[in-house]
Amino acid sequence: MSEINHTKTIKNASLSDRFKYWLDKKMAKGTMSIIVLLTLAVLSVIVFVSVLAILFKLRDSIFPAFWDSLANTINTEMPSSEDGGIGYIVLNTLTALAGLLFTSILIGVVSSGIEEKLNDLRKGNSLVLENRHTVILGYNIGEHGLLKQLILATEKDKRCIVICTDIEKPDLEQDLQNNVEIPDNIEVICRNGDITNTNDLRCCSIEKADVIVINALDDNRRIKTILAVLCIKKEYPEFRGRIVACVTDEKHMLPQNKIDKKNIIMLKTDDIMARIIAHTSTEPGLSIAFKELLNFEENEFYFEKDYRLIGKTVMDITKCLNKASIVGIRRDEKTILNPDKNMTVEIGDDLVFFEENKGSFVITEDNEKNVSDRELPKIRTEAKGTVLIIGSNVMLGTILKELPNEVDKITVVSQDEETVNRLIRKNKVKNIELYEGDYEEDLKELAAAADHIVILIDRNIEKEDADINNILLLLKLMNYKELYGYGYNITVELNMENSYNVSLKNNKIDYIVGSNIASLLLAQISENPNLEEILNELLSKKGNELYSKSIHLFNLKTEHDYSYNGLKQIVLSYGYTLLGYSNRGAIILNPDSEERVLFDENDRLFVLGEN
What is the DSSP letter of 129? Predict the structure, then answer.
């Protein structure tokens, strides 16, 4: 019945209603449509006046009548009494008034159209005309780690980086101008849009990009963005861009066959962060070494060939290599991390170096005393003491599983007792207890009994609020440490980079910042996809991992000064690859091979190896 009434309403619409509807549709088309309508209306008035002038014999022919009407309309000049009779004056007055109305409306329409266009340009909606650029989809004010890393990775090469985000372009540009130093060889273009909308993505010319980095805040938005990019990819067979993304939850990972076919690299940040937290909690300073491995400042991993090293063993290379450490050999499209000291480099092998810049290593004469043939004492085990974990989230299960077996006792403080008990049963963790009292009242006693404290983020509240809560708890624990001389180290999880920037800095505090870890991983993989294999091994329980180990485990003496080259040989003889060391609070990675160091009791070595 309603459909019939609706049909009758359309048929019975008045001429006025039809005209208003038609006019509304035309004006909705924009500035040019309004100008065309306005011009047609004025021309209609001019023609009408010209016809009247001929009919009333005020002019002899149509052209003079049309020209006079057009001139009066354009000039908007009122006729004088000397220009003709009363009829002529009246008609030209009408055209002058029409011209005045036309000019006023035209100026308003044009200025409004120009303002609208300028606003569009300010918002960044124009098409990006670039090739082989990098596109960052998603950005957060105050989180500059990803862009800074991409700039560092570029060095002196020219590069265009396009950022697409829902932040207004002027606000984003102001934030970048205030916080990021952009060199002359880097061009950063900002575009405002919805990163899950294919039309907005087309403005970034992602089909011509080398790398598309998905930098959205949550997993759902990341997956939507990937799907939007893949929709565009279907339209362009020549699309070869690499898609790089991090997700926090395993369930948001795309199937492996889809990832391989679509040139997508996905990493699980929660798993990675959980492992970093588990290792860092009992190995102080390890978070800094992780960041050094993952960022583009100073030392990083490089794949290189060198004919001079063919036929040499890993130990031979270690003895003559300066300004770098050999950490792996890539052979038959597979990377062997922490290779055996007797492994020989073959033709076609890529060597993986840990060095400051690509090709910065130096091959020197082997003047170092050979320690590789000495009979070294067995590597010792290190007692890990007790661990106090305050808070719980989805990473807790992985952390419990990854904590070293040498930990004497683990105490977990959490309001979600049911989940924690389930994780304890599932992972069959020994020497663990769930604290059931009021931990805020008993915090001092809990801290006094701990050697290592881990503070986890509450994922059920806003990210900034969760960060503030952890920072306040950290300050309380550091106050106990100063007042009562407690010896524990603290590992703190934070959500945002800007929270870390205002936090207390101390060599007994390790910060694991979610957005920062994600930015470092995205930047590394976007620049060198071969690193995915290395990072997956380093940040998983299988194969080789990064460790911070006491000097005493390698039977090093505090009264003896060692050359760094000698240390590399000693560590390699134990089956590990040395990357650096801590010395009296300072962390030193990849120093000169001739540099000598005198350790104290608390110093540690940063090594790659299997535990």
Answer: -
Q: 81 in helix, strand or coil?
A: coil
Sequence-distant (≥ 6) Cβ neighbours of residue 82 within 8 angstroms: none
pTM listed for this prediction: 0.75
Amino acid code (one letter) for 449: A
Structure tokens belonging to residue 206: 């992602």
* CA dist., res. 367 & res. 73, Å (int): 97
Report the phi/psi class of residue 580: left, alpha or beta, with left for phi > 0 and alpha for psi in -120 to 50.
left
- Quick one: pLDDT band at residue 23, thresholds 50, 70, 90? low
pLDDT at 28: 66
| Residue 284 DSSP symbol | T
Q: Are strands 321-322 and 362-363 parallel, antiparallel or unpaired?
A: antiparallel
Residue 61 to residues 46, 57, 426, 432: CA-CA distances in angstroms? 14, 9, 101, 107
Q: What token pair was written down for 393?
A: 């989230």
- pLDDT-derived band at 605, boundaries 50, 70, 90: very high
Query: CB neighbours of 44 closer than 8 A, spacing ≥ 6?
Result: none
* 589 Ramachandran zone, left/alpha/beta (phi>0; psi -120 to 50): beta
Comparing CA positions, the residue from 276, 222, 275, 229 lying closest to residue 245 is: 222
pLDDT digits (tens, 9 = 90+) for 63-85: 676 776 777 666 666 665 555 56
Q: Which two tokens stand for residue 398?
A: 């992985």
Hey, which residues does 78 pair with through a beta bridge?
A: none
Dist. CA 247–CA 201, nearest whole Å: 21
DSSP line for 548-604: EEEGGGGT--TTSEEEHHHHHHHHHHTT-EEEEEEETTEEEES--TT-EEE--TT-E
Please state whether beta strands 452-455 and 489-494 pair in parallel, antiparallel, or not at all (unpaired): parallel
User: Helix, strand or coil for residue 127?
Assistant: coil
- Reading the block at residue 222, the tokens are 């990341």
Annotation: CATH topology of 134-262: Rossmann fold (3.40.50)
pLDDT averaged over every residue in the chain = 83
Residue whose entry in the numeric block shows the structure tokens 């050359």: 563
Measured distance CA(360)–CA(355) in Å, rounded: 7
CB neighbours of residue 426 within 10 Å: 11
CA 306, chain centre distance (Å): 34
Structure tokens at 108: 């308003």
Specify the range with the lowest mean pLDDT, choosing from 25-29, 290-294, 337-341, 568-572: 25-29
Question: Domain segments of the chain: what residues?
Answer: 11-123, 134-262
Question: Ramachandran region of residue 359, left (φ > 0), alpha (ψ -120 to 50) or beta?
Answer: left
Residues 6+ apart with CB under 8 A from 95: 45, 46, 49, 69, 72, 73
Q: In Å, how far are 4, 66, 465, 499 from 472, measured between CA atoms? A: 68, 82, 11, 12
Cα dihedral across residues 13, 17, 21, 23: positive or negative: positive
Cα-Cα-Cα-Cα dihedral of 518, 523, 528, 532, to 10°? 0
Q: Coil, strand or helix: which one is 95?
A: helix
Name which of 369, 359, 367, 421 is nearest 396 in CA terms: 421
Q: Which amino acid would we find at residue 97? A: L
Q: What band does 366 get if pLDDT is binned at 50, 70 and 90?
A: low
Of residues 346 and 122, more confidently modeled: 346
Half-sphere exposure of 172 (CA within 13 A, CB side): 22
